[in-house]
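Sanity check

After download, print the first record. It should look like this:
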Amino acid sequence: MNNYFFNVLRSGINTTFQDKGRFHLQHLGVTPGGCMDFKSFSIANALVGNSLDEGVLEFAYQGPLLKLEKGEIKIAITGNVYFQIVKSNGEILDGECNRTYFLREGDQIDILATKQSAYGYMAIEGGFEIKSFFKSVSILSRAQIGPNEGKKIKINEMIFFKRPSKNKKNYSAKVLKNVKNVIRVLEGPQFDYFSKESQKDFFSKEYKISNLTDRMGMRLEGLIIKNIKNTNIRSEGITKGAIQVPADGQPIVLLTDYPTIGGYPKIANVTSVDYDLLIQKTPGEKIFFSPIKLHEAEQLYKEHLNSISEIIKNIKEIN
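Expected structure tokens:
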């Protein structure tokens, strides 16, 4: 391991290393995990010239305060984040998301808070010096799998990176904010377990995101969904974005660190095109669900990926 590193002066909330995820282990009970917001993750890596498979730092609500102890490095922060760069001479710069900054020894990056969103990302040119596990550097903290002993980043830790940056040019990306509150879904495999009235209510009434929300799931509050068959089913394989309805009738959306099997009926599944939008919603926000067909969801997801590619393609050098 080399000697280029940051010192963690504040760990932030739920700060972890993440990449696209750890696949092909679900039969062993290990969920893929990975970044919550694929779009922000991808743009962060692209801005600093990395492969889109490189690991980044993901944080929720408040990010870390990092001091660059040795080396020079180019960074990018993506999402909707308020952060500052504290130069070694004491000068403070208000940071701008979706662009790069060049840090020198003694500089600090202070990621203060996300703004009307949950998750943000920090990528560095060349990537972090971290060991992969089953072809991924994503941390699955509940199972303590991944680098850093599978644990969240803590104060006074050292975060090493692969090499110092030599290219001092900076780049920016144009990213439009999506603030809509309609989440498109597919009907779930147990959709017919619920009364016709509840099916109608599910697609017409609002749901509020509760405080019981993390990387594993999002509990919603709203009209009780009435199950007319059975509130439990035999446990079966489950997917990211599945919307389970337990006996209390209040939906739970399974998120990135979802369990590999589940025993509650599933009324719907969040489409991949709207997943990034959903996970950036914060407790107290209200959302609506709108049904679409599989062929529509597939086409919309292709368009979503193309839009990310266009953003990356149009990254420009700035002064």
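If your output differs, re-run the checksum step. Summary of this record's structure: DSSP finds four helices and 22 strands in the chain.
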